[in-house]
Amino acid sequence: MELKPIGRIHSPFTQAAGTPIQPRFAFGSNGHCEVFPEYADGLRDLAGFERIWLLFWCHRAAAASLSVIPYRDTVERGLFATRAPARPNPIGLSCVRLVGIEGNMLHIAEIDVLNESLLLDIKPYVPEYDSYAVERTGWIGERGLNIAAADGRFQQEA
Amino acid sequence: MELKPIGRIHSPFTQAAGTPIQPRFAFGSNGHCEVFPEYADGLRDLAGFERIWLLFWCHRAAAASLSVIPYRDTVERGLFATRAPARPNPIGLSCVRLVGIEGNMLHIAEIDVLNESLLLDIKPYVPEYDSYAVERTGWIGERGLNIAAADGRFQQEA
């Protein structure tokens, strides 16, 4: 299971502190994805999709802990019940808005990713596959605080 | 960027042919995820969520091609505009229904994953983060065929 970067993400966010915790809270934050030239042919037909999933490596994430206080709560929660970036496999998953494509460059809006993150995969966002109405959303539904931006708690020491 | 499996997925599907192409088409397909004991503490609080994302390694996927004929079309599309499993980083992403948790075992419904796939991550499904109404869904919206099950086209030769 070896990963190879397919590109690099460029965003205004150079530190976790102040970075939107999800694209939902990233209105007005724009960036771009540089897809390495050898993968550019795989971008054909992508421009027809309004949103895309970015899978990326959380290169600045601290070592994983199985119990974390997530941004939107004040008590510890099991790591896998949170979206904290410090995970055994620190793979980030963000549903961003695709504004346009020029060659191997994707212009992105509503980006919540740290600058210089390595891109692992791009998948089209398909509501039929990805959008579910659910009744139960655990601690987030019951207690979720109104927090939109990260602090440094899951970031590696510099 | 080294991946370590956090568990193993058990499903009724031992071959790509006949496997649902997405959880949306997997009604009645049940399986389970065995989370390795050293990660079990990270499952606390997860049972409150109705659906979860599974990230897993598509261990049977063929080598990536940047142009593929996806299941739901008859012409070639850029790989990143499809959800085909044969990708530079063959990371599968499935939004499955979490039926219950017993110790380190997750009982799953609506599963579309091949048996014995290695589990990389579990994230809670949060509609606020993951569910977007979009207007444009590219070739899938324009031409998507009514196909619910895979064939062997993206599977490694045995």
Question: Tags for this entry?
Answer:
8 strands, 158 residues, two-stranded antiparallel ribbon, 6-stranded antiparallel barrel, 2 helices, globular, mainly beta, homodimer, Elongation Factor Tu (Ef-tu), domain 3, 28% strand
Please tell me about this protein's structure.
Two copies of one chain form a homodimer. Chain A has 158 residues and is mainly beta. Chain A has one domain (7-143): YaeB-like (Elongation Factor Tu (Ef-tu), domain 3). Chain A is built from two helices and eight strands; from the N terminus they run E-E-E-E-E-E-E-E-H-H. Chain A has helices at residues 127-130, 138-143, and strands at 7-10, 30-35, 51-57, 67-68, 77-78, 91-102, 105-109, 118-124. In chain A, the strands form two sheets. In chain A, strands 1-2-7-6-3-8 form a six-stranded antiparallel barrel. A two-stranded antiparallel ribbon of chain A has the order 4-5. The longest helix of chain A is centred in the last third of the chain and has 6 residues, at 138-143. Chain A is globular and about 45 Å long.
Number of strands of chain A: 8
Number of helices of chain A: 2
Q: Which architecture of chain A per CATH?
A: Beta Barrel
Largest interface: A-B, 63 and 64 residues
Regions with little confidence, pLDDT below 50 for 5+ residues of chain A = none
SS strand fraction of chain A: 25-35%
Please, how many domains of chain A?
1
Distance between the termini of chain A: 28 Å
Question: Biggest sheet of chain A: strands side by side, in what order?
Answer: 1-2-7-6-3-8
